[in-house]
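We store chain and fold; thus.
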Amino acid sequence: MTFSFTPSKPLADYARALRDWSASECRPYAREADDRHAPPENWREILDTAPVPLGRHDKPGSDPFPEFEDGYWVSRLAYYENLAYGDIWPFHTIGSGIGHRVVQAMGTPEQIEKWYEPVVGSGLVTAFALTEPHFGSDTSQVATTAVRDGDSWVLNGTKIFCTNGAVADYTVVFATTDKTLGAKGINAFVVPKGAPGFVVGKVNEHKMGIRSWVTSELVFADCRIPVENILGWSGDDQGRPRRGGQAGALSALASNRPNIATMGIGIAQASLDVTSRLLAEQRAGFSPRRWSAVQDELAAMNQALQRGRRAAHWAQFLLDRGGSDRSAAAIGKGYAPHTCERVIRRCMQLLGPEGTSRELLLEKWYRDVKIMDIFEGSGQVQRLIVARGLMGRVAG
């Protein structure tokens, strides 16, 4: 198996154009998006100026994300890093969510045709509802219930921090059909927008970072959906799916974790580049020995980000070749956001009081990248997955 970390020239050209545009056209609106907890009002006009296709779902007829010889998932890493280099706010306006990936992983052919293919073809927005008020990373603690009632399932419970929850065309909701079975009793259900008993508690949760992204509280109060909306339903009288909901959730998250990691790398690289430029302007105030130490530290941080790129690249390289490795995805997610947080924090320290001021974006990017470390599987859990892959369940 041949592995190369060097991108093809077309992908490198795409990445460079995207980075330059994101820094010049999207970054100036970063503070506004953070303050108003929403993208800038003129976000469509901003995206219209992009020199390369973004794979937009908001604009019918727009060019899809290009195909590169590097592979779909590897190519997406270039997209995530270089768009994030400007700022993270455009992602929420472009992306379609990850709920449909659960459909792809768990659904029957009929369900995939009904709920997955329309998202890919026409840009429907999907949501993924797993986290609840009493738990985050431990998916076995799902308390939302689903009870069979004739030709329907009735859902009751509350989900929080659900990306796209208030705006999605449908939400994939994880609920337990039998609490005595623990994680094995969890299943995934497609809940369309407007279903009876489906209520948006909060359109956008107040949070530390990624404030411009809609992450909603969703309430299910005797929410009734058709029996066939349980993913993987075989059509028998018991409504038993062919795959557990927890497995489907983890599968969907694993494929996206290296993307989240690379998004963090883009943010950290922007912080490092801004810091390097400002320190160079202040060079006269450093002694030769101190300046040499600063240069060494900046170089070490760049190398740390490069290691993160390699880890994410390897995971998606495997995925492109049909060899998805949960541990490889966990390495990327467990290493990069945590490292990026340290890089940005050190950049702020090197700049002194200026580093934490609102005049720069470093404090905002620090808040954003901390969220990258937490959501879609926290860094601590990812490192536990890696340890168990090496040592078995005895690790942790």
Q: What stands out?
A: The two ends are 33 Å apart (CA to CA).
